[in-house]
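YM 10:42: Zf-FLZ domain containing protein sequence, as discussed on the call
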Amino acid sequence: MTSGMFHLAGTEDYNHESHFLEACFLCRKPLGYNTDIFMYRGNTPFCSKECRQEQIEFDEAKEKSWKMSSRSLRKSDPNKNSAPSKTSRTGTVAVA
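YM 10:58: structure's back
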């Protein structure tokens, strides 16, 4: 009996289920058996260093854009004072 996670293509009882290591995340090129797979951020597979690097650059640009837009939203918030506000909370917390 074989587990779905370790099942190899070409066996008689092969049921085609999509697996995250079937194709490159970026270009969708099929990832072959016994070939190098370049991983990024956990379980994101790429067929080459170039595809992986392109995704890394894309993610970095997206993060930079997000940080810039987040800063501009904070600066343009009319409800915020220029001085930092301090909040204190008092009360009782019961833990069961």
